[in-house]
């Protein structure tokens, strides 16, 4: 991937952090986008220490202005944009009845609107890279979830946001794939990250119990999947990958 530029949202922890390290180790210059600038700065130092190029972009993707500015800064400072990993997300589970609606608003804002704003801002640059770039192909990898394939009692709004990501990705794929912008969907099962930690204590306990006997995926396992997708030859588009821990039902 040397000579290419990748922007990764949600790069301050978990899957996004692992994806940034993975793409940087394959030669991509990486723009690291999230709100926690201190975590991004540590990651950027690590990537630079390993000989890579990293740009810290502190941004809240729920603001369209911030998403646009993040993409613009990436292109201004790193020169182009070949790969977008649309990964930032939140998962706040629990029954619909009596749910704190504020949690729904946060999920829709990050998982749906944040992803849409970033995709919209990035697309002209991805199309340009697919036309003029060295590889003549560009990638948008949208991180959905098993929850984007299968709805369950207790995760209705998270399911809704991730199904939205799937529907949007398939429609956009049909729109731009003829111009060599590949739109891919990654759907992980349970991954060992900070994602569940933002839930209310009683919900967190339910999640812990559900996965107590499951050896979860590591963030690196999902990063491998993303790296596989974006390193395929130009004529190969991996549209969708569902990756569960072996023991997850
Ligand atoms: P983490 O909580 O470790 O990472 C989430 C990332 O999203 C953080 O870097 C966070 O950064 C960022 N983020 C959250 N809100 C915003 C915002 N408003 N603006 C910019 N960045 C934001 O969880 P994961 O790595 O597990 O999650 C990554 C993706 O993977 C999510 O889309 C999630 O739904 C999906 N996924 C995860 C699974 C799992 O089991 N862990 C399973 C299936 C899918 P910061 O707080 O610094 O802004």
From TrEMBL:
GO molecular-function terms, A-Z: oxidoreductase activity, acting on the CH-OH group of donors, NAD or NADP as acceptor
Q: Can you tell which superkingdom this protein's organism belongs to?
A: Bacteria
Q: Where is the Ketoreductase domain?
A: 4-194
Extract the InterPro entries matched here: KR_dom (IPR057326), NAD(P)-bd_dom_sf (IPR036291), Sc_DH/Rdtase_CS (IPR020904), SDR_fam (IPR002347)
Instruction: List the keywords (alphabetical).
Output: Oxidoreductase
Pfam families in the cross-refs: adh_short
> Which SUPFAM superfamilies does the entry mention?
NAD(P)-binding Rossmann-fold domains
Instruction: Identify the stretch annotated as signal peptide in this record.
Output: none
Which family does the entry's similarity section mention? Belongs to the short-chain dehydrogenases/reductases (SDR) family.
Tell me what this protein is called.
Oxidoreductase
From the broadest rank down, the organism's phylogenetic lineage runs:
Bacteria, Bacillati, Actinomycetota, Actinomycetes, Micromonosporales
């Amino acid at each position: 991937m040397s000579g290419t530029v990748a922007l990764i949202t949600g790069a301050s922890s978990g899957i996004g952090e692992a994806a940034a390290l993975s793409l940087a180790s394959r030669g991509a210059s990486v723009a690291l986008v999230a709100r926690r600038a201190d975590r991004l700065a540590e990651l950027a130092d690590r990537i630079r220490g390993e000989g890579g190029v990293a740009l810290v972009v502190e941004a809240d993707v729920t603001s369209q202005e911030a998403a646009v500015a993040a993409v613009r800064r990436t292109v201004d400072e790193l020169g182009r944009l070949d790969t977008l990993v649309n990964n930032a997300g939140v998962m706040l589970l629990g029954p619909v009845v009596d749910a704190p609606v504020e949690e729904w608003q946060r999920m829709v804002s990050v998982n749906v609107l944040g992803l849409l704003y970033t995709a919209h801002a990035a697309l002209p640059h991805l199309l340009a890279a697919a036309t003029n770039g060295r590889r003549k192909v560009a990638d948008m990898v949208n991180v959905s979830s098993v929850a984007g394939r299968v709805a369950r009692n207790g995760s209705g709004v998270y399911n809704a946001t991730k199904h939205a990501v799937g529907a949007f990705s398939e429609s956009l794929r049909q729109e731009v794939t003829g111009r060599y912008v590949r739109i891919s969907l990654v759907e992980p099962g349970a991954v060992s990250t900070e994602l569940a930690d933002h839930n209310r204590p009683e919900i967190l306990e339910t999640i812990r119990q559900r996965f107590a006997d499951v050896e979860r995926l590591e963030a690196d396992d999902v990063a491998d999947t993303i790296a596989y997708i974006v390193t395929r030859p130009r004529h190969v588009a991996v549209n969708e990958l569902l990756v569960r821990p072996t023991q997850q039902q």
